[in-house]
């Protein structure tokens, strides 16, 4: 199997686990504390990794010699992704997996569309996949009419979490697209991820202090969900940057979007969260749309990866 596909699927698995655990961590510990302590743990481990890599002849050492523009793109994209993560965790706190996850999953379609605008080939099949994914997300957002699977709604009658999930999807799509096209090719797969967690810790710590948010350490019994959320997410981020290193952005990002399916299935299997029939149909439509994107983009993937491999060998 192609490395871009392998790392894309690994990204989906790790993000799916992280998103599932994040719901419980956000409810028990709070969004700010979950983000801060989870990212502090990841930043510490990645800093050690960067230091070891930069001390030799690794890619991290070369990254620090890149021009300021590459770092500017990395900082901007990471701030966008960080904002998306905060909005997403808040959506999970007030909404249901079956409503929030299919909407957030469309970030892969957004990234693919933006990549097309930047010159990456994307045909009619891929455009159809984007449309199917968006329509499927809308269908999955409609709450059940009644019964145990009923979705809580806001005073306006809209299921809770829809607006925040939509904002998160757009921010993720923009952030990942900018990072994959302008930061990873010059800084490598590791430094942008490390920068994300360093920025996240600094921003959350400073803003949280100004807003008088509780950033106290989690209790011992809360550490598994907090650290599990952070470590799974950082592992997924590293896998995604590895996936796009070969030059193809649409395929790995679309595969990463399958994390929503992983999360909803975990919710159904482990906590017995009810999912209505039409929501299953919407989830299936999202999956089908993402697979259409994958089928369309994968036509040029082998050549892209082969060219990248040849370039690496020549260097």
TrEMBL record:
Keywords: Membrane, Transmembrane, Transmembrane helix. The chain crosses the membrane at residues 6-22, 34-52, 72-92, 99-118, 124-142, 162-182, 194-211, 223-243, 249-270, 277-295. GO terms for cellular component: membrane. Residues 7-141, 160-293 form the EamA domain. This is DMT family transporter. It comes from Lichenicoccus roseus.
